[in-house]
Amino acid sequence: xxxxxxxxxxxxxxxxxxxxxxxxxxxxxxxxxxxxxxxxxxxxxxxxxxxxxxxxxxxxxxxxxxxxxxxxxxxxxxxxxxxxxxxxxxxxx
Length: 93
Prior knowledge:
This protein is an all-alpha fold. The chain is built from three helices and no strands. The protein has helices at 3-17, 22-31, 37-92. The chain starts with a helix and ends with a helix. 1% of the residues are buried.
């Protein structure tokens, strides 16, 4: 398979995954044959970045939630250790 075919398939996939109306999608497909190699490559890179950002958005949100959960547990554990230490120090006095 030639690189042009590969790029075409990749562009087709990326355009198909965009949130566009069918008219917008058709207009974009109709512009592709008029574009230079450099323009096609740039479009492909932009669409791929947009696709990856959208695909990983849920994973990023999940990771942020998990990190906040871990931070809360850590802060609770530190507060408990501080409370126990204070109690122990008070009992010594």
